[in-house]
Amino acid sequence: MDNRTIAAVATPNAPGGIGIVRISGEEAIEIAAKIFKPVSGKNLTESKGYCAHFGNVYDDNEKIDEAVCLVFRAPRSYTGEDVAEISCHGGLYVTKRVLRAALNAGATPAEAGEFTKRAFLNGKIDLAAAESVMALIGASGKQAAAAALNTLDGNLSREIKGVAQSIISICASLAAWVDYPDEDIEDTSAGDMLPVFENAKKELSDIIRRYDCGQAVTDGVDAVIVGRPNVGKSTLMNMLTGFERSIVTDIAGTTRDVVEEKIVLGEIIMRVADTAGIRETENVVENIGVSLAKRRLERAELVLAVFDGSEPLTADDLDIINQSKNKKAIALLNKSDLPLSADRKIIADSFTHVVELSASTGEGRDDLEKAVAEICSTNEFDPNSACLTSERQRQCCVNALSSIEDAIAAINGGVTLDAVNVCADCAIDALLELTGEKATSAVVDEVFSRFCVGK
Ligand code: GDP
Predict the structure, then answer these.
(1) In angstroms, what is the C-alpha Rg of the chain?
(2) Cβ(305)–Cβ(330) below 8 Å
(3) DSSP assignment of 34-94, as one string?
(4) Percent of residues, the chain, with pLDDT higher than 70
(5) Could you report the per-residue pLDDT of 414-452, keeping only the tens digit for each?
(6) Scanning 60, 164, 297, 402, which has the fewest C-beta atoms within 10 Å of its C-beta?
(7) Residue of minimum CA distance from atom 20 in ligand 1
């Protein structure tokens, strides 16, 4: 563990009421005391933990701000080290100036995620909880935030450790067999082990399934809006984002790039791309837009295929119906404020979900929200149960599950218990990698490299 005292601005780099400069490490309070003088005249170095002091911040004897300094004493702080947090006036200049003063007084600039990494290395939180800090910061909706907070509280780690512990306990009897293969303990051990592995398999499968269902809530889905020109794609995009972003005209072929927006529909985050109208065209520039739209459609997780309900379907509409086949797709019969002329049956026969809506009045938005939740299975997502918060965690679960399935197959196939022992060890390693108890430093570095500076 390095003994540098680190400092960084913990609040966003933008104008705001308050900006926080966080200092952590053995010399945190001494460094803070060099730049912060409490109006009470007390010396900060004598402050107890959990104390707030009002005073002034100085750099080179020049007063740079009025501020409040919070003192935390190790191990009772976020990082587990001595921590001073100077809450000064927010803004692009002042917080940076306070940080510079802290650096001039002996602190080192913190790397991305270094405060949380220190919390992990000091045993304040495990790796899964550290990742949930990032998920919590990035959460765009209530459910995503609840799921992240749940993991931060340790629900996931408790469940994973429970599974690991059950396998560790059967490893004890396996170890006995491996050490004394001549003893007659094989039959009883195999019989006892199977239900433990079966139970672990079920728990891990459930956790993985919940993560997959919750992906749309926590990470969002890549959605694409497609449709021939003038069906109302840009109007729909504007309705979903709540402001005029796409160009709405009744001249065919006006949206030529792919316009992308992050929107929250109910509890689901969607990265929605509004594409050029897909149609046969001779126009070279428009054709580039059409190819981009088709490629976007191919890789999208969710297709919102828009049709003009007030007009009969055209050959271009049928082409879009065809391209949406075998994809998660919702048909949007737009312009429901006008009389229906499109053949609804042809659309209903080709899509599992058809929503009638008016992009210009917003009517039908709730139905769209419901259809998206259904098709993304987010109804099954329960943020109160143990939730994985990263692809890394999912991969650890998948690896553990695969080793457990190998162990079950080995027991059922009558393979010697050495093989079962190896599988059980692999499963335990994968689970402990998830919680960080057995993660390599490369894995730890990789996790924290994705953090922001100041967290
Ligand atoms: P895009 O080419 O598919 O992006 O279509 P636009 O969003 O540019 O819309 C084409 C035309 O249809 C514009 O004149 C819109 O005002 C109109 N429009 C879009 N949605 C609706 C709707 O729900 N009802 C009605 N009546 N007109 C709409």
Answers:
(1) 29
(2) yes
(3) HHEEETT---GGGPPSSEEEEEEEEETTEEEEEEEEEEE-TTSSSSSS-EEEEEEE-STTH
(4) 89
(5) 887 888 889 999 999 999 999 999 888 888 888 888 877
(6) 60
(7) 232
The C-alpha atoms of residue 277 and residue 405 are separated, in whole angstroms, by 48
Q: How far apart are CA 112 and CA 90, in angstroms?
A: 20
Tokens 């197959």 belong to 409
Residue nearest to atom 14 of ligand 1 (CA): 250
Query: Measured from the CA of 359, which atom of ligand 1 is nearest?
Result: 23
Nearest-atom index, ligand 1, CA of 237: 7
Tokens 């299975």 sit on residue: 377
Of the candidates 228, 204, 135, the residue with the CA atom closest to the CA atom of residue 402: 204
* For ligand 1, atom 10: residue with the closest CA: 230
Judge contact between 275 and 260, C-beta under 8 A. no
Q: How many angstroms separate the alpha carbon of residue 357 from the centre of ligand 1?
A: 12
d(CA 281, CA 126): 56
- Rounded distance from Cα 336 to ligand 1 centre (Å): 11
Q: How far apart are CA 44 and CA 33, in angstroms?
A: 5
pLDDT > 70? residue 307:
yes
Tokens of 51: 């104390």
Beta strands, E only, 174-245? 221-226
Beta strand ranges found along 148-277 (DSSP E)? 221-226, 259-265, 268-274
Q: How many CB atoms lie within 10 A of CB 167?
A: 24
Residue that the structure tokens 């599950």 belong to: 401
Calculate how far, in angstroms, residue 324's C-alpha sits from the geometric centre of ligand 1: 21
Q: Which two tokens mark 291?
A: 């190819």
pLDDT per residue as tens digits for the range 238-271: 898 875 554 455 555 555 455 677 888 887 888 8
* Cα–Cα distance measured from residue 373 to residue 255, given in angstroms and rounded to the nearest whole number: 28
Distance (Å) from CA 358 to ligand 1 centroid: 9
283 bridge partner residues = none
